[in-house]
Amino acid sequence: GRMWAYTVGFTVLPHVGGFLGWFLTRKEIPAWYEKLKKPSWFPSCKVFPVAWTMLYTGMGYASYLVWNDLGGCGSKALVPMGLYGAQLALNWAWPPLFFGAHNLNLVM
């Protein structure tokens, strides 16, 4: 009964930080990022929302599968879910740091 709610919750969660990152940096994209010199093979900015939607959906659903397979919030899930949470937090922090600082060294 309630498993669909867990599935949806885990799958949607990564999008929250992705949306906030976009919201905080949305003015920097046309003002700064689009003016950067990029290689000829660089994808269009229109590709990024589609790619990140797919990536965040995949990460979220995969985290649900791990959580479900390991029996929920037990000790078995602590390390894998902790590592997932840490990488997700770093993933969410990168756009505000990169766009806010205008620092290309953060890409490396």
Features:
108 residues
How is this fold's topology laid out?
Elements: H1 3-25, H2 28-31, H3 47-69, H4 75-101
Helix pairs in contact: 1-3, 1-4
Protein name: TSPO protein
Keywords: Membrane, Transmembrane, Transmembrane helix
Transmembrane segments: 6-25, 46-67
**C-alpha geometry:** elongated
Low-confidence stretches: none
Strand content: under 5%
What is the residue-mean pLDDT, rounded to a whole number? 88
Query: With helices defined by DSSP (H or I, 4 residues minimum), what is the helix count?
Result: 4
Q: How far do the termini sit from each other?
A: 45 Å
Total of domains: 1
> Into which percent range does the helicity of residues fall?
over 70%
Largest sheet: none
Task: Tell how many strands the DSSP assignment holds.
Answer: 0
H/E order of the elements? HHHH
Which structural class matches the secondary elements? Answer: mainly alpha
- Using only C-alpha atoms, the radius of gyration works out to 17 Å
